[in-house]
Each structure stands twice: as structure tokens, then as C-alpha cells.
């Protein structure tokens, strides 16, 4: 694969356009940073040093050295003590800081997720999250966030770095089976590959097809709502149940401005509702005079 040409053809990174690269120092983010530089984008980088591992200081210095070599401005964030689930906290800190920097610079925020990560994500969500959305995987663009390497494998990024003489650091937690994602990576993916060597390609193709179909379903839901932020319960009863659930989820998520995956599980309850019902994920359903709407749970 001509990785540079492939990323350029994707159109997410372009000459002269500002981009903030989230840089961990691993092979994928190292590859992405260098590719953005090679494509002539206006590149800056963000490294978050959580200070949670003994190697954190060395990883920060590695990123500083890489950015000096590539003549890229580097912003380093030290967020302090974690709160709640450590992995979720770290992800939230990384994306919130990246979004702030990208917003200040009128840039896109580039994440170095690869096709390998996509397979692991789909499999992890399939096991942990019921519903069609679990199989959609990550989108190449989601708001300000772009993923230029999403059709490139981890082996491709390693080959790029070796060819360019770029070293990287390996996060030991990536192989720590106390983390679910590591168990998917080290156990489930090889097991599926043993069943069929095309397993990863088939997972990726399935996710791609489902994303295309999701666009059709979104259009159907938009037509069913016709711009309204509420719907009559009687109309919901007349819709096919699958479409009714999609309408309920759209109403809930539009009202809260965030995902509300648990709303669909209460679909039958909503058809019988007269009053208010907390459906989870911070959403409250309200039926008054036979009309359903959603608001944030107080």
C-alpha cells in the first residue's frame, strides 16, 4: 500500500489545512504525525502525560524529540489525578483537551485509529453493547475529529515508521489482559483469524456496509419525524417496531444532544406511558395528551 497516497486520497488531511494530531508516541500516532507533515498540513501535536505509569516521563520526552525532529509544535498536558474509571477519564481528558486546541486553531483533531483498531472496536462493542450501532465501528469523520488511518493496518504504520527511520514507544498496557480491549486484541482476534484468515477483512466490510445502511435508516427516521421534536404515541404504534425504536432514540438524543442507547429498550413501556419515565442515560420521557417528548432528567 502507498500509505501517503491513500491518506491523501481520503481528503481528511490536506496541504495548508490546520490539524492537531493526538500523539501518544506509539507507532500509529508517530506514523500519522509524519504523514501529516509529509502532506504539507499545518501540523501541531498534543501529548497527554497522565503520569500513571513509570514510563510516562520517557514517553513525553520521546514525543518532544520526535516533534523537534519533524519541526512540529507540541502541546503537553498534565491532567492530574484520575477520577472514576481510569480509561474513560483518560479518554475524556485527551479528547476534551484536543477539542479545545483544535477549536482555538481552527483545526481538525486527528486520531491515529487504524483498521486494526476498527476490528477490535467492533468486536468489543458487539460483546458489550447490544444493538446495530455496536457494529458500525468508528467513522472517518465525527464532528471535528478525523481518523485518516482508518483503512490502514497496524502493520502498515509500523512499516512506514521503519522506512522513515522513526522510532516509537510501546504502551505495555496494550497487552495487559486485565483490560477488556487487550483481551480482544490478544485473544479474540487471533481466534477468529484461526477460523478464517479473512475474519478481520470481513468484520471491516460488515461495518462499512452497515454504516451505508445506517444513512438510509437515518433518512427514513427524518422523514417520519418531519422536523418535529415529539410524536404521538398512536403514530408510534402504527409504525413498524424497528422504525418506532429508531424514532424514539432520535427524539431522545436530539433532546439531550448526546447518545441515549437505553431509550430503545423501553419502547414497549413508552407505548403504554401516561406521565413521565426515566429511560436511562440522563433522559426522561414525558407523555402528555398522547404525545411523547424527551427532556433531560432533573
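^ Assign residues to that structure.
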Amino acid at each position: 500500500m502507498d500509505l501517503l497516497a491513500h491518506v491523501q486520497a481520503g481528503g481528511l488531511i490536506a496541504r495548508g489545512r490546520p490539524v492537531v494530531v493526538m500523539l501518544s508516541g506509539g507507532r500509529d500516532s508517530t506514523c500519522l504525525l509524519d504523514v501529516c507533515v509529509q502532506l504539507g498540513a499545518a501540523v501541531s501535536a498534543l501529548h497527554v502525560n497522565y503520569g500513571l505509569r513509570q514510563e510516562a516521563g520517557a514517553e513525553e520526552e520521546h514525543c518532544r524529540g520526535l516533534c523537534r525532529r519533524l519541526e512540529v509544535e507540541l502541546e503537553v498536558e498534565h491532567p492530574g489525578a484520575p477520577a472514576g474509571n481510569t480509561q474513560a477519564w483518560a479518554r475524556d481528558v485527551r479528547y476534551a483537551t484536543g477539542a479545545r486546541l483544535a477549536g482555538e486553531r481552527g483545526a481538525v483533531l486527528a486520531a491515529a485509529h487504524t483498521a486494526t483498531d476498527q476490528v477490535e472496536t467492533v468486536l468489543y462493542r458487539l460483546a458489550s453493547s447490544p444493538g446495530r450501532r455496536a457494529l458500525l465501528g468508528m467513522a472517518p469523520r465525527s464532528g471535528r475529529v478525523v481518523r485518516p488511518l482508518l483503512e490502514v493496518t497496524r502493520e502498515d504504520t509500523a512499516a512506514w515508521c521503519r522506512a522513515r527511520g522513526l522510532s516509537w514507544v510501546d504502551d505495555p498496557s496494550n497487552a495487559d489482559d486485565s483490560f477488556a480491549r487487550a483481551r480482544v486484541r490478544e485473544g479474540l482476534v487471533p481466534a477468529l483469524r484461526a477460523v478464517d484468515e479473512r475474519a478481520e477483512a470481513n468484520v471491516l466490510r460488515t461495518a462499512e456496509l452497515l454504516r451505508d445502511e445506517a444513512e438510509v435508516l437515518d433518512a427514513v427516521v427524518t422523514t417520519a419525524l418531519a422536523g418535529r421534536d415529539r410524536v404521538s404515541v398512536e403514530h408510534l404504534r402504527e409504525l413498524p417496531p424497528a422504525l418506532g425504536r429508531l424514532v424514539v432514540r432520535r427524539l431522545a438524543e436530539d433532546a439531550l444532544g448526546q447518545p441515549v442507547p437505553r431509550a430503545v429498550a423501553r419502547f414497549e413501556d413508552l407505548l403504554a406511558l401516561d406521565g413521565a419515565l426515566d429511560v436511562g442515560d440522563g433522559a426522561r420521557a414525558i407523555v402528555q395528551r398522547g404525545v411523547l417528548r424527551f427532556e433531560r432528567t432533573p
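The first helix runs from residue 3 to 10.
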